[in-house]
Amino acid sequence: MQRVRQRQHPRHPAAAGRRHPHARSTAGRGLILQRLGPTNGGPSTEGDHPRPASPYAVTKLAEEQLCLAHASRADCSTSVIALRYFTVYGPRQRPDMFTYRALHAALTGQPLRLYGDGHQRRDFTYIDDVVTATISAASAPIDTGIVNVGGGSNASLLDVINIAKSLAGREIHVHTDGTRNGDVLTTRADPRRARAVLGWQPTVDLTAGMREQMHAMTGPAHQSAA
């Protein structure tokens, strides 16, 4: 995710000391683009050399680098902070995403398709924590650059299945399939820069977050939308 805001510039003297307070800015003042964090198996720092494993990941890295390169121009009046979101989940998640599919299978009794052996690990980040980090980025120092936003819940897909079963009180029938191309074994964020620069750290663990997601999936608003 790249957040773009106006920078002090000689051609814009009225902008001196002025900073846009929100991440979801209007045209001419801000831009938000999602970015996925790469990893080599251990914690991923912002300074790691990215090695995208899929065409999708390549496009995300290209977005990030394009925005940062544009902001580095001497004649550019905007600055960029790139937030690398790690496996965001929670209410209103897309139904093709894994935590949604696991909860849906537990609630309905329908089978769950699992790609690979389930030992793939992800740094799951609850949506409320992501929103808080994004708002904090609006007032971060102008030269912040790249910041990881990871939930600290580095759990396997099998962990997600077990949590879904526990929350719903029902077994899940798992249908296994081959690993998908470009699916990395582990994603895990190094959170130190987010704490130092944004004053942010996650507050919602995976079980609590999935509980809230399940409540949203079984509530009247979700049922009426379905």
Please describe the structure with a list of short key phrases separated by commas or semicolons.
single chain; 226 residues; alpha/beta; 3-stranded mixed β-sheet; 7 helices; 8 strands; globular
Estimated structural class: alpha/beta
Strand content: 15-25%
Total helical elements: 7
Mean pLDDT: 81
Largest beta sheet: strand ordering? 1-2-6
**How do the helices and strands follow one another from N- to C-terminus?**
EHEEHEEHEEHEHHH
Radius of gyration: 19 Å
Helical content stands at 25-40%
Query: Which descriptor suits the 3D outline?
Result: globular
Number of E-type strands = 8
Describe this structure in words.
The chain has 226 residues and is α/β, with parallel strands linked by helices. About 15% of the residues have low confidence. 34% of the residues are buried. The protein is built from 7 helices and 8 strands, in the order βαββαββαββαβααα. The strands form 3 sheets. It has a 3-stranded mixed beta sheet, sandwiched between helices. The protein has a 3-stranded mixed beta sheet with strand order 3-5-7.
Would you kindly provide a brief summary of this structure?
The chain is α/β, with parallel strands linked by helices. The chain contains seven helices and eight strands. The chain is globular and about 60 Å long.
Q: What is the element layout, followed by pairings?
A:
Layout: E1 2-6, H1 55-71, E2 78-85, E3 88-89, H2 98-108, E4 112-115, E5 121-126, H3 127-137, E6 145-149, E7 153-156, H4 157-168, E8 174-177, H5 192-198, H6 206-218, H7 220-225
Helix pairs in contact: 2-4, 2-6, 4-6
